[in-house]
UniProtKB/TrEMBL annotation:
InterPro entries: HTH-type_Bedaq_tolerance, HTH_MarR-typ, WH-like_DNA-bd_sf, WH_DNA-bd_sf. It comes from Saccharopolyspora griseoalba. PROSITE patterns: HTH_MARR_2. This is MarR family winged helix-turn-helix transcriptional regulator. Gene3D superfamilies: Winged helix-like DNA-binding domain superfamily/Winged helix DNA-binding domain. Transmembrane segments: none annotated. Residues 4-136 form the HTH marR-type domain.
Length: 165
């Protein structure tokens, strides 16, 4: 079995299944994953400039701008002046967004807990044992992404991602 290929094939459908189950159970709005990720970033890191939000999410500044445009209309993100630089704008989640995230987290946790409870005991144990491994995998992938994006003032340096010296 090719572990990387199998994991790659399963992650998207699993994520979408959790989203569908969560939205259906709580009657939550059908927000795209990118909007949920931006809300989570703003809720955990506090008000951020659009560029910093983009950097933390690993997306282009224009992506955050497009997300904010749609989310501002839906009363999920507010723009505020930076206290350090009145020309700069910071993004913050609204109370509506924070309520949404709270309901989303509670509902998705409950949906996953119910599905996990239906698994045979040996599969529940295997899943519990895999959680730290998945966390390390996410950290490794994020670390490699930040290495690829690290640029000097003159040029971007491509790190050796092959794992060989």
């Amino acid at each position: 079995m090719d572990t990387a290929a199998e994991l790659s094939r399963l992650l998207g459908p699993l994520r979408r299944s959790v989203l569908r189950a969560t939205r259906g159970a709580e009657g939550l709005p059908d927000l795209p994953e990118a909007q949920i990720e931006l809300l989570r970033t703003l809720a955990t890191a506090g008000p951020l400039g659009p560029g910093e939000a983009a950097r933390r999410m690993g997306v282009a500044n224009s992506t955050v701008s497009n997300l904010v445009r749609a989310m501002g209309t839906a009363d999920l993100v507010r723009r505020e002046r930076s206290p350090e630089d009145f020309r700069a704008v910071r993004l913050a989640p609204t109370e509506t967004a924070l309520d949404f995230l709270d309901r989303y987290d509670r509902t998705s946790t409950a949906a996953l807990a119910e599905a996990i409870a239906r698994l045979p005991p040996d599969e529940r144990e295997a899943l519990a044992a895999a959680i730290p491994v998945l966390a390390h995998l996410a950290e490794d992938l994020d670390g490699r992404r930040s290495q690829v994006l690290r640029c000097s003032a003159r040029r971007c340096e491509q790190p050796n991602l092959s794992g060989r010296s």
